[in-house]
Design goal:
Blueprint lengths: L3 E4 L2 E2 L8 H19 L10 H13 L3 H11 L8 H13 L4 E10 L6 H11 L4 E3 L4 H15 L17 E14 L10 E6 L5 E19 L5 E8 L6 E7 L7 H4 L4 H10 L1 E10 L1 E8 L1 H9 L19 E14 L3 E14 L12 E7 L4 E8 L6
Parallel strand pairs: 3-4
Antiparallel strand pairs: 2-9, 3-5, 5-13, 6-7, 7-8, 7-10, 8-9, 11-12, 12-13, 14-15
Helix pairs in contact: 1-2, 1-9, 4-5
Length: 392
C-alpha cells in the first residue's frame, strides 16, 4: 500500500497555531518528503517534517559562516535570527498542550566536549533542552542510553532507534527529537463494517486489505492540478477537533502519487483547507500500519545541504571551538498504526555530529580499480578492475 507522505499530516494549521516559523518548517519538511519519495515512488514512506526541522534547527544554532548561510537558505529560516528561538519555543508549547501529543528534544554531548555558552543558551531558549553528558568512548553504552531515552519518549513504539555501530569514539553530539501521538477518531469506524477488499498498489499489483467504512459529514473538496489531474481531499478529525488527518488521492488509479506530492507546500495545505466544505460522504479507508527507517544524508545533500556533512567545509564553531565538527548522519524512523479506533504514531529523529578529525570510512561496495606500483621507479606491476569479487 502506498500513502502520500505518510500524507498522514497531523494538520494543525487552521487552529490559530500557524506562525511564520511553522510555515517555513512545514515547507522545508514537505520538500524533504518529496525528495525522499523520488527514490521510492512505489513503496510506503512516512516522515515527520516537524522532527527533521527540529534536529536541523538545533544544528543551526551551532552553525557559523557559510554552513549557517547554507542551512538558512535551504530551510528558509534561521533560529539564530532575533525572535526566532521564541517562536520555536511557542510552537513547541502549543503542540505539547494537545491531548495525546507528546514532544521531546534531547541533546547528548560527549563529556569531554566544552560547549559554547551561546549554543547552550540557544538550546534552552528555542527547545527548552539542556545537554546531557555521555561517554562516547564507550559507544555501546551510549547507544543504550539514547535508545532508552527514545523509547521512553515515543511511548515504547520505537525502542531500538539507533542501530549498533552508528556511534563511535569520534561522536561528539547527538541531536534528538521524539514525537508521539495517540488520537482517537472523533467518530470511530464500526469494526463490524470492516471487510476484506482489493487494493491497487502503486506498482500495479493487487493486494487484499481490511477496508474500514464509515458514513458521516466530512470536510471535503475536489481539486485539479495545472496538468488537469483531478483529485480529492477529505479530512478525518480526531477527538477535540484540533488535530486531523487529511487524505489525498487522485480520481484515476493510474495516476502516480508523485503527481500530487510534487505540489506539496504550506500554501497548498492552506488552499485545501480554505476550500473544504461539510458534505455527507461514505469513506472507505484501509486499516494499515507503517514502519519507515530513513537515512536522510543523500536526500538532504540533493537538496543543497551537502556542506553540513563535509569534513572539509562544515562549520559548527558556535557549538564548540575545541575541535571542528560535521554532521555524520541524519536518521529518522516513523511508525504509524491506523485502525477503526484511531491512530498511534511515533517519530524518532537524530542528527549525529562527529569530530571532523574522525577517520571517514571508505567502503568499496562497488566496482573498483587496483594498481600495484613500485614506488621508487613508478613502474606499475599489476593493474586490474574488480566488478565481482571472488574468493579463491
Amino acid at each position: 500500500m502506498q500513502y502520500l507522505c505518510g500524507f498522514l499530516i497531523l494538520a494543525l494549521c487552521g487552529t490559530g497555531l500557524c506562525s511564520r516559523l511553522q510555515e517555513r518548517q512545514t515547507d522545508f519538511g514537505l520538500r524533504v518528503f518529496v525528495e525522499a519519495s523520488r527514490s521510492a515512488p512505489d513503496t510506503n514512506l512516512a516522515l515527520s517534517p516537524y522532527g527533521i526541522s527540529s534536529v536541523l534547527g538545533m544544528a543551526q544554532l551551532g552553525a557559523y559562516g557559510e554552513t549557517l548561510r547554507t542551512l538558512t537558505a535551504q530551510m528558509g529560516y534561521s533560529l539564530q535570527e532575533r525572535g526566532m528561538p521564541r517562536e520555536q519555543r511557542l510552537l513547541q508549547r502549543d503542540l505539547a498542550v494537545e491531548e495525546g501529543l507528546e514532544l521531546a528534544s534531547g541533546v547528548m554531548v560527549d563529556r569531554k566536549l566544552v560547549l559554547e555558552k551561546s549554543f547552550r543558551r540557544g538550546l534552552s531558549k528555542a527547545f527548552q533542552s539542556t545537554p546531557h553528558q555521555l561517554d562516547f568512548s564507550q559507544p555501546d553504552t551510549a547507544l543504550k542510553v539514547i535508545n532508552a531515552w527514545m523509547s521512553d519518549s515515543t511511548g515504547g513504539m520505537i525502542p531500538n532507534f539507533l542501530p549498533a555501530g552508528v556511534l563511535s569514539e569520534m561522536t561528539r553530539l547527538v541531536l534528538l527529537n521524539a514525537l508521539h501521538f495517540h488520537g482517537l477518531w472523533k467518530v470511530p469506524f464500526d469494526h463490524k463494517m470492516t471487510e476484506e477488499m482489493i487494493f491497487h498498489s502503486g506498482n500495479g499489483s493487487l493486494v487484499t486489505v481490511p477496508m474500514m467504512r464509515i458514513t458521516d459529514k466530512f470536510n471535503y473538496a475536489d481539486f485539479e492540478t495545472e496538468d488537469g489531474v483531478e483529485y480529492d481531499v477529505i479530512e478525518v478529525p480526531y477527538e477535540g477537533d484540533s488535530i486531523s488527518m487529511l487524505l489525498v488521492s487522485p480520481f484515476d488509479r493510474d495516476v502516480p502519487l508523485s503527481t500530487l506530492s510534487q505540489q506539496l507546500s504550506n500554501s497548498k495545505l492552506k488552499e485545501w483547507r480554505q476550500n473544504l466544505r461539510k458534505i455527507n460522504k461514505q469513506l472507505a479507508l484501509p486499516r494499515f500500519s507503517m514502519d519507515t527507517e530513513l537515512d536522510l544524508k543523500s536526500t538532504l545533500t540533493k537538496m543543497g545541504l551537502g556542506e553540513i556533512f563535509s569534513q572539509r567545509k562544515a562549520d559548527f564553531s558556535r557549538i564548540t571551538t575545541e575541535e571542528p565538527l560535521c554532521v555524520s548522519k541524519v536518521l529518522q524512523r516513523v511508525k504509524i498504526e491506523v485502525n477503526e479506533d484511531g491512530t498511534k504514531g511515533s517519530s524518532a529523529t537524530a542528527a549525529i555530529i562527529y569530530s571532523r578529525m574522525a577517520v571517514e570510512e571508505i567502503t568499496l561496495d562497488r566496482p573498483f580499480l587496483f594498481l600495484i606500483q613500485h614506488k621508487p621507479t613508478g613502474a606499475v606491476l599489476f593493474i586490474g578492475q574488480v566488478n565481482q569479487p571472488q574468493e579463491h
